[in-house]
Amino acid sequence: MVWNGMQTARLNADVEDGLYDGRLGELLQNDRVLFRLEALDGIARERVNSLRRADPDADVDEIEVYLAYQAQLRDALELRHNAPDMRFMNVSQVTEADVARAEASARDGKRRNFGTI
């Protein structure tokens, strides 16, 4: 997760330094990635809360839940600057159905906020 955060910070610094001046298409693609990551953070937070409500005594590893969404949707949502995999997917308690809903939600949110640009 730290690595992913560092990659996002690097991307922001590149924008501030003008590395994307005159490259609107690439800048918009990177903005989409950041938007999708933010959407996945909210979805992961909701999943963690749901797991804790279902079983207050359960050992829910928040970091694994967050990483599960990012790793599972890396290719589908073009999150290319994220780590490509994770070791303890089974610990996350994120199901294939959870991932499918998250992908649909992130894509729907992108359409609402970015349109056809």
From TrEMBL:
Q: Which UniProt keywords apply?
A: Host cytoplasm, Leucine-rich repeat, Repeat, Secreted, Ubl conjugation pathway
Which positions fall inside the NEL domain? 1-117
Superkingdom: Bacteria
**What InterPro entries is this protein classified in?**
LRR-bact_E3_ubiq_ligases (IPR051071), NEL_dom (IPR029487)
Asked if the record carries the keyword Ribonucleoprotein, the reply is no
The family classification in the record reads: Belongs to the LRR-containing bacterial E3 ligase family.
Q: Which PANTHER family match?
A: OLIGODENDROCYTE-MYELIN GLYCOPROTEIN, PTHR47114
Query: What is the name listed in the Swiss-Prot or TrEMBL entry for this protein?
Result: NEL domain-containing protein
Q: Which organism is it from?
A: Bradyrhizobium diazoefficiens
